[in-house]
Amino acid sequence: MNGYAALREYAVTGDGRSVALIARDGSVDWLAWPDLDSPALFAAVLDHAHGGGFQLRPDVPYTATRRYLPGTNVLETTFTTAGGTVRLTDALTLPDAASLAPGRELVRRIEGVTGSVPMHWSVQPRFGYGAHPPHLAHRAGVPVATCGPDALGVCAWNAGRPQCTADAVTGRFRTDTGTRALIAVPYAHQEPLVLPTRAECEARLDHTTATWRRWTRERTYDGPWREAVLRSALALKLLVFAPSGAVAAAATCSLPESIGGQRNWDYRFSWIRDSAFTLDAFLRLGCAPEATGYFWWLMHASQLTHPRLHVLYRLDGGARAPERTLPLSGYRDSAPVRVGNAAARQLQLDTYGELLQTAWLYTTAGHRIDADIARRLAETADFICGVWRQPDAGIWEVRSVPEHFTQSKMMCWIALDRALDLAGRHLIPDRHAARWRRERQAVAAFVDDRCFSPSANSYTRSADSHDLDAGTLLGLLHGYRPPDDPRMRGTLAAVQRTLRDGPYVNRYLGPDGVPGSEGAFLACSFWLAEALARCGRTDEAARLMDQLVALANDVGLYSEEVDPATGAFLGNLPQGLSHLALISAACAIGEASR
What we know:
single chain; globular; 594 residues; 12-stranded antiparallel sheet; 4-stranded antiparallel sheet
């Protein structure tokens, strides 16, 4: 297990097409090219020995601190040694109009700040999740690694003479006060590899910094925890797949929910579950292009399987996501390493509520939907009338026997309620509105008769159960019942009493068909903070929010889960839902305070 950084030690940078995971020690341990959901080229985070990566660090003992350049996703790491200080700036660069840019490009600028520091670096490309060793050769004096249609160059300036071994490109050099070195890794897939000049790389790095700062200046949020909200917005922007407008759940796959466990999933897909939070965040932050792009991607992707929704879709809008395992050891021996996601085949009824809620938010913000989308939304409401009585896998995608999960039924109610509102505003056809109204009442009767425990004074995890589930808080957040409803307030109290541990909230405590345990789910903690604010307990919500903001790592990022005992990050990162829930909670607490 030696050689693995703690998940909390990772920062990310990206370019709207892919994301690189960079440890505090300067090692790029994850990078999938050409796209975020492509097979990884660097996957040391999943197999330190065989995954490949890009190490860059001092050759002598050091300490490291880091930050994002203000308002950007450009990472700055400062190495301090006995002999001097070095500053490393990392980015996946954004193309500019001034030069012919490579298809993809990682640029690393190394500056001597004080003294003299020996440095070493090593690029170990491993195509196809480590399955294919590279063929290394020189092209115009530049080391180039190739494998089939993929090519990667290693361009170094003032960073020592690159040396090629059988499977790596390495170099050593020394920084002195005022010196500047640069290493660029251009990449091409099914196209000629463009080898850039140093001036072009330097210019693109500066252009990338300026572009991120311009994007951040356009954000409109001015409420509490502004720095955390803006960092969450920047993290979310990294998960937006620019070619389609889709938003990935996370940038990585198979990072474990418990060390050594089997709960290792591929999150490089776009989940319908996250859609309402995503659109709401974009609208609140003044991200109109992202909101529009995401909404129309969602409408396109869901059209392919209409009227049935898949749980998740590929970033290109495709519906197939076959799950398989890779011959990698896994992060700290957490196996299996999975790519693809079998949850795509599940029935999750809550997704229909999220889809209609998203359309409702989009139109409420003043956007129009065309006649074809309107017809399909009405047909989705018709479909819900026929399927809501079925058991499903629920929001948490359990791999046990389907059940009548309470949150799923609540979201079916939300779907029909939003359809009725859209029809009442003449935005979708209303021919079957009477049926939607009857079925909405039937859903509510089912939830209130079979999914509520008088002894716990709480909605339960599923029908005729006594277990609790933090997902039922979404009934309050999405408006299944108003905040002053006694049953919702009872549910809020029961979640705090049973599932909360300090700032941490467990999703549930019962079995789910997968062996092993998991950490506390960060989004649930933010949902709790938002629920408290909506119920008028603003001071309590703010105190919890302060604790949750402090749980971020040193550069403001969150994973999916946290180990309450150690504070260790667990699961994939950066986790979009964690950052979305933070944005939503901050906005709600700010509104409640006003």
